[in-house]
Amino acid sequence: MKKILVLFSFVLSSCILSAQQLYSESSILMGSSFNISVVAEDEEFAKESLALAKEEIVRIEKLISSWIQGSETSKINQNAGVAAVKVSKELFDLIYRAQQISKLTSGAFDISFAAVGKLWEFDGRESQMPDQEILNASIVNIGHHLIELNEEASTVFLLKKGMRIGFGAIGKGYAADRAKQVLVERGVVGGIINASGDMNTWGTKPDGSSWTIGIVNPMNNKKVFSWFSLEHDAVVTSGDYEKFTQINGERYSHIIDPRTGIPAKGIVSCTVFAGKAELADALATAVFVMGKEAGLFLINQLPNIEAILIDDSGMIHRSKNIEIEEN
Ligand code: ADP
Ligand code: MG
Predict the structure, then answer these.
(1) Which carries the bigger pLDDT value, residue 11 or residue 285?
(2) Residues lining ligand 1, CB < 6 A?
């Protein structure tokens, strides 16, 4: 579980006053635990809604997984350096948006990081720095500009043979956005998609009050240091304490710096607030790589995006519109 715990106050007692209730269900989807909650008056409608949201997430996993043989993403990877692959408009658009975020973050976020992904195991065990020659030979296969998109033909071509793409840093966010959209289109008035702490909300709690989250400082005995009312629909945290590696006693995150092929260090968690979970997810990963100064500098340029970081000495850093008081 993430050490930045995001806690919700589900005030169910207020349901006595209103016919609306909160219906929730947890399941393992995309290798993560998803908790989906909907506000509804009718139990059957709520259950059907939860099932539809789950179906949507399963559908997305089949599209973007590089582990599922025969997925569009696997086909793109298998044809790296060989041929352009025709894909659905949905995947094409997702890759296009990923490329735009790479440009925005000067390449810190890059789905083609996956060319070096196989060199690292993030299971908490002590590992060794990969051989520099192997790293050098692998990082030449990273580069968002080497992903050739042809909109007319709806094709994706990874220009080099050693290239791979992976949606680990954006997939859960995209799935959360899509699941929310499916529910909103169905007329569900409020809810939360919580993908292991990557959150997407809409509407209000059954009692009409805003959804609130509390963020816990992982360096400080899990103490909640702040409560927020959600003004941004999506809140995403990057920095999973269970996925890290140690080299010579130093702890490295599972987020890879595409410039070096080496995992980023310095930030232990980065929470990004945005309108969409997909963008929040990608930016949280990018800020990790960029580091606190450059990362917050970028966030402060972007309208309606905020971030809170905790560095490896436990210090909290925040973007300009966030005020926090540690209690
Ligand atoms: P979390 O797993 O804590 O939610 P992220 O959303 O940041 O964190 O996703 C991390 C995952 O993103 C990694 O496991 C890997 O699959 C992928 N990834 C690692 N480095 C990068 C990068 N620089 N750009 C894009 N994706 C990355
Ligand atoms: Mg991310």
Answers:
(1) 285
(2) 109-111, 113, 166, 168-169, 238-240, 254-256, 258, 281, 284-285, 289
Domains 3-63+170-326 and 67-158 share a fold: no
Q: How many other β-carbons are positioned within 10 Å of the β-carbon of residue 214?
A: 15
DSSP string, 170-201: THHHHHHHHHHHHHHHTT--EEEEEETTEEEE
In the sheet that holds 147-150, the strands lie side by side as: 85-86, 155-158, 147-150
CB 177 within 8 A of CB 274: no
Convert the pLDDT of each residue in 54-75 to its tens digit.
999 999 999 999 999 999 999 9
**CATH number among 3.40.47.10, 1.10.150.390, 2.30.33.40, 1.10.3980.10, domain 67-158:** 1.10.3980.10
Domain positions in the chain: 3-63+170-326, 67-158
Element holding 96 (H helix, E strand): helix 89-104
Where b means 16+ CB within 10 Å and e means fewer, 281-295 reads: bbbbbbbbbbbbeeb
User: Rounded CA gap, 47 and 21, in Å?
Assistant: 12
Q: How far is the CA of 169 from the centre of ligand 2 (A)?
A: 4
The fold adopted by the segment(s) 3-63+170-326 is T-fold (3.10.520)
Residue among 254, 269, 287 whose CB has most ligand 1 atoms within 8 A, to mutate = 254
Q: CA 100, 101, 103: angle at the middle one, nearest 5?
A: 65
**Distance from C-alpha of 308 to C-alpha of 318, rounded to nearest angstrom:** 4
Q: Dump pLDDT digits (tens) for 151-188.
A: 999 999 999 999 999 999 999 999 999 999 999 999 99
Look up the pTM and report it: 0.90
